[in-house]
Design goal:
- The chain is an alpha/beta fold.
- The protein has two domains: about 200 residues, FAD/NAD(P)-binding domain (3-Layer(bba) Sandwich), CATH 3.50.50; about 140 residues, FAD/NAD(P)-binding domain (3-Layer(bba) Sandwich).
- It is built from nine helices and 22 strands.
- The strands form seven sheets. It has a five-stranded parallel β-sheet.
- Strand 14 and strand 15 form a beta hairpin.
- Helix 1 runs parallel beside helix 8.
- It is globular, with a radius of gyration of 21 Å.
Amino acid sequence: MKQIVIIGGSFGGLTAAFELRRHLGRKAEITVVAETDYFAFSPSLPWLALGLRKPKDITVELGNLLSRKGIKFLRATVQKIDPGKQKVDVGSSFLYYDYLVIATGAHLDFEAIPGLGPEKGYTHSIMTLEHAIKTNKAWQHYLEKGGPIVIGSTQGVSCFGPAYEFLFGVEHALWKLGLREKASLTFVTSEPYVSHFGLGGFRQAGRVIEDEFAEKHIKVFTNAVIKEVYPDQVILEDGTELPFEFSLFVPPFRGVDAVINSGLGNPKGFIIVDDYYRHKSYPNIYATGVAVAIAPKEATPIPTGIPKTGLMTEHMSKVAAHNIAAEILGRELRALPVSKLDVTCIADLGKSAVFMTAKPALPPREKTYLKKGRWAHFMKVAFERYFLFKLKRGGTNLP
């Protein structure tokens, strides 16, 4: 029986696990390894940080979920991968594999900027469940005293959306509480212009977001590099000082330690794959989601990464699972170049939202669509409920 090990228990890892079980039945033993024993619906973390969700609303326990599908689960941190011996070091033991799927996401590189981060620095985060819970406590404390707020995305970011969503969520929350006039809002981003998103812009999104900033009196710094963060101010590389009572930043991304320690990634630790999502040197190793290296289509003054949304990740994972099953069953492989990945995103703006889709995600594009409205906010809420409902029943969410 073939042994398949999947590293990662979020969108990419779970989609790959369920799809492999669907394709292969009991012809393979599948093991998922993850650092936490739960799945957290990350698009809802900005809401959780603002007190609009509770952890139990957006999490699913992994052990029971996977066991119902006959999939093994191991909570562990992968230390290293030995592709020659086809084994994964999980600290106290090794897992041997015939096929490996790396769906680890990224390492949040708070260490890259002095004073950044919720653990050793002075800024908050919504990139993990634990960070969002901690941010909510800090947010409640902030509401007791008020003052300037600085929110944004640092240099080296590959996912800009959460910063925008949290910013507009904060503005809307202050407005509802009657505190908006007492708080200045500043947005800092390494993007060359607002709504670049690492994707070279998105139709008329720039005008929509710029209008939101203007109407809500939010000051913006683009092409910004953060030099250092102190307990009460952010220092930009050009010397600009931004005082704050509350600050949150999306940090730089790099590959996880297990990939870097194993020499399987590029200089930043992301994995270069072929059109089948196989590692270029080890074809029985697949990668999906944020762990995959995707080169930007254009150079920007401050280098930006390419976001890999949940939808993009699920597409990659379905193709990877199909191809592993095809190799085992002697069937035809399926290709999906990263340049052909589509993107669909709903960016929440507090009391409304923007629905965006592009085919493909990277320009030149064949089709784009963008629309703003209150209905898009409710669509985001509905998708959250649909996704979690279907996940709890062991389903994936694409056709």
